[in-house]
Amino acid sequence: MGADMKALNKRHEKLKEDNKKQHDTWESIAKYFNPSLSLLFAKEDTDEEEYAKDVFDTTGIESANTMADGIVGNSISKSIPWVGMYALDPEVNKKKVIQSFFQKVNYVLLGALARSNFYNVISSYTKMGVTIATATMYVEEDERNGNCIFNLRHPTETYIDQDWYGNVDTIYRDIRIGARAAANYFIKEKSSLSPKLLKMAEESPFERVSIRHAVFPAKDEWFKFPGVTGNVASVYWEADAKDIIRAGGFDSFPFVTWRYRIEGSEKYGRGPSHDALPDAKGLNAMAKTLLQAAHKAANPPLNIPSEMKNNLRNKPGGANYYQDPGRIVMPWNVATNYPVGVDQWDRKKKQVQAPFYIDNWKMLSQLTQRMTAIEVSERKGEQSALISTPLGKYESEALDNMLFKVFEIEMKNGNMPDIPNELAGDVGWEYNGVLAQTQKRTLLNNGARATMAEMENIMKISPEAAMVFNWPNTIREIALNNGFPADNLYSEQEVQKQKEEAMAAQQQQQKVDQMEQVGKAMGGANQPIDPESAMAGMMQ
Known about the structure:
about 550 residues; alpha+beta; five-stranded antiparallel sheet; three-stranded antiparallel sheet; 12 strands; about 15% strand; flat
């Protein structure tokens, strides 16, 4: 084994060791918040029912589902154009050629997402980020049809590292996959596959083999690997082999890792499930105790006279005969205070729900009764502000990077329009989901609403105060902030032209009125004006 392979394996084992330090916490989180991940930590012969037998309360699971579904449902929708590219320079966005370019980009982008498996896996990705707080997606191109593929990575087999600025720039991973699938994936590198793997692909195709994959900066001064290309190195090798299967690279980092929250110099994230885990464990213990108490209250132990042994009829309608009233079957007095236990359980349940903003998600869906549309919008804006921090990180660290990868793949395949010379500066993504629109309306329109409310009384006293405002621009901004289609708004030039035409028509009408008054004064008010007369010329 060469020095390069030894260095790869050494780095792989070190990052794997760091990852294992998270497993105990992740296993507990999976148990109480995300059962679909539970089997990732269980032994191969453990079924899901066996693994979940000690869970007596599902508050954590319900809370994680509510938050994950709330983020996805209010941010992403296959049925509407939920995202669009825009220039960070507002002046650039005003150019028609730029608007046309972005419109074409958005059409291609949304089409690429619809053809891919994005909408099938984004919910699982989001829930993984909400629960274990570190979710990694591998975005690649399917060479068979050119479609984008979103591959949600196994958290216990994906080992991350970050640069000085806290950005994930290195990932080593173990890939456990069937021998046949591995041989087909590396069919072009068949000669680099070990004889053992090729034999397994033929004789036991479904038996799993271990492939390792490393992705890291190609220009790393401290680890320059031969044969890599691009800005990001990519190296595949078999775990127990001596040779590289494939060495190549990417123009940009192909993994998208979303970490809900980073504390200090930690590489792996922390999230609401970490915060709620102690309460979830306590709540589960309380639920078990209350369940036992309820069982005892509903079906208590019985005190049975010894002479009735083997003769007890305790089925519904059963008849037990006795002579001595003091020696009858009596239920055991179970001394429980069930209402007090339920009250404590309810308080603990709210403590589990709090880190997931459950009250806010519920309120967002219930703010419709006895309120005006403006009041509903304002209240939703207030509630959405409380969840803006996790949502903002989700958009910037997860969605932004996924969308740029899709843009890169579609551009490489020639599906994107040519970038116009007028596009100067950086671009970004504007989200049009329910939460994004609500936050935008709140942040951008609240000032206008507050000003108008205060000015209403002032303008009643002093109408000329209204002349301070540029009403067309004010209305245009409010309409755009509320999500009104920009194509249905007149431009500033069109509004100015309408003003000029209206003013010209008004002036013409004033001339007509003046001429009629002059005609009346001259005694000819009842006579039409001769088109050939000098009077008609005055009206031109």
